[in-house]
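Hey, I was hoping to borrow your eyes for a little while. For a while now I've been wondering how a particular protein folds. The fold is given in discrete form, as structure tokens running alongside the sequence. Could you read through the record and tell me how the tokens relate to the sequence? Take your time with it, there's no hurry, and the full record follows here:
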Amino acid sequence: MAFPVLDQFRFHHVLAETPGTALVMFTSEGCGSCGHWKRVLTEYQARHPDLAIFEVDAGHDLALAREFHVFHLPALFLFHNGQFHASVQSEAHLERLRAAIAHALAQPAQEAP
């Protein structure tokens, strides 16, 4: 499954209008582990259809990658009701991802990068 791709011109606008929880994955064409993450996120979204998932190609959108201080790929960022909430650190495993998202949402929102 392909996730909607956001670029620097649509990123903030689309996320501001996305209700509920959204996960943004920064990826790149040559990123091997990004393919594995895409499969995990596709399965995760099938089980949690209320989660919107978007993709940013860090190789094409360097401005967004710099704005979010992306130093490794993939990089995951959580948004809630249109606002940045947290970066997500997790293994590419369904249950660990679920726990990481739940933990992040239970905490106060972090300051956006």
User: Anything to note?
Assistant: Residues 27 and 57 are 5 Å apart (CA to CA). The mean pLDDT is 96. The first strand starts at residue 21 and ends at 27.
